[in-house]
Specification:
Layout: H1 10-26, H2 35-48, H3 56-65, H4 94-119, H5 127-136, H6 138-145, H7 150-165, H8 169-176, H9 187-199, H10 201-224, H11 228-237, H12 255-262, H13 273-284, H14 296-309, H15 324-336, H16 341-362, H17 374-389
Helix pairs in contact: 1-4, 2-3, 4-5, 4-6, 4-7, 4-15, 5-15, 7-8, 8-10, 9-10, 9-13, 9-14, 14-15, 14-17, 15-16, 15-17, 16-17
């Protein structure tokens, strides 16, 4: 692993990508505004006004004003510390906000790929390979086109790895706090952080720094709406009715939700059973987990893939962008290999992966459950490619 993964041209690629996409959206007056972005913006508007950002009636009214008139609100189920991220979207026009939001997600995804490439020991002069992988990865554009925010969480993971490798655990914790924007997709990563904190001082510094960031965001949310945790609890537990969509009725292409739906009565605890088992296994196997400053991209990629597999909910098509650490790691190793065959195999595999993701997305409602196969297939495929490149 490169001991000092300097950004190099990473930020130039990221800024160019983000600004370019934002400009394209602003230049296209008929550009589609995704409903998830409208829901985020509506929640930000409610919080800014001091109202309950989880209130389905309030969300429905705000979403209708933004051009999404439906009988039920597009609900949000993110924890309260996420809500301040949506507030800036509330103070600009819808199209401008989406252009800035999409540009941010796209730019940070490209930046994350570049940081991961350098942390994986990739040639800094060829960091454009990582940027190209991020741009060519269908999940990136599904993420941007869907108005989602997994790009922020991916950057949090990549930034954590880069900062720990550079010996800056405080910065690693602050940037790594971005993974808590999607806590259900980073469960094993969080367990590994706690294990590292229990073993060494740098781990405790990182966890404390991240906790302070999340506490600050939560305090800002509580200052705007003191009853926000009650609204969050209602969003997770209230049955469907009126403008409300029930959280328990949300489908998701992950093992936990499939297990829950297969059991009589659909017990909610069942969705967390795969994660609980994997977390217990990680704790028992903690002696094989290296210190976080020596994790590199390998451990981060494994934790990201594993977290996707055992996530209690989520794991949607736009969340497949979290497979980029594994893809970039494999690409960096193949790029260093003297034998050209791993590069050919890797390029073919990437094309097949991109085609498969596009195929699933084209018929995503009917093929929803097949998404559960994508993380393990990509994980094992990248492991096999890395081993082949090392021969």
């Amino acid at each position: 692993m490169n001991p000092n993964p300097r950004p190099g041209p990473v930020w130039a690629f990221a800024v160019a990508a983000g600004v370019g996409l934002a400009g394209l959206i602003l230049a296209a007056p008929a550009a589609y505004i995704p409903v998830d972005f409208i829901a985020f913006r509506s929640a930000g508007q409610l919080l800014l006004a001091g109202d309950d950002p989880y209130d389905p009636a309030g969300l429905l009214a705000r979403e209708a004003e933004a051009g999404f008139p439906e009988s039920q609100a597009i609900a949000i189920f993110h924890p309260p510390w996420v809500l301040p991220v949506f507030v800036p979207l509330a103070v600009v026009p819808v199209r401008v906000g989406y252009a800035l939001w999409a540009g941010l997600q796209f730019g940070l995804t490209v930046a994350a790929a570049g940081l991961l490439w350098r942390a994986a020991g990739g040639d800094g002069r060829r960091v454009g390979v990582a940027a190209g992988l991020a741009v060519a990865f269908p999940a990136t554009f599904i993420l941007v086109g869907g108005g989602q925010m997994t790009g922020l969480a991916l950057f949090g993971l990549a930034g954590f790895v880069a900062a720990r490798a550079a010996g800056r655990p405080g910065l690693a914790g602050c940037v790594g706090a971005l993974t808590a924007l999607k806590p259900h997709l980073f469960g094993l990563f969080a367990v590994a952080l706690l294990i590292d904190a229990a073993r060494r001082r740098a781990g405790r510094v990182a966890v404390l720094a991240g906790a302070m960031v999340l506490l600050g965001l939560t305090a800002a949310t509580l200052a705007a709406h003191p009853g926000v945790f009650g609204g969050f609890r209602a969003a997770l537990t209230a049955p469907a009715g009126g403008a409300r969509r029930a959280f328990a009725d949300q489908p998701a292409p992950v093992l936990g939700v499939m297990l829950r739906d297969a059991l009589p009565g659909r017990p909610g605890w069942a969705a967390f059973a795969p994660f609980a088992g994997a977390a217990a296994g990680l704790v028992l196997a903690r002696r094989w987990l290296p210190p976080a400053d020596r994790w590199g991209v390998g451990a981060a990629a494994a934790l990201a893939v594993g977290s996707l597999v055992v996530a209690p909910y989520g794991g949607w098509w736009y969340d497949m962008v979290l497979l980029l650490p594994a893809v970039v790691l494999a690409a960096a190793r193949v790029d260093r290999a003297a034998n050209p065959w791993p590069a050919r195999v890797g390029a073919t595999g990437f094309v097949l992966l991109a085609a498969g993701l596009l195929f699933l997305y084209a018929d995503r409602d009917r093929l929803l459950k097949l998404y559960a196969l994508v993380p393990p297939v990509v994980g094992f495929g990248c492991v096999g490619l890395i081993r082949r490149a090392g021969r």
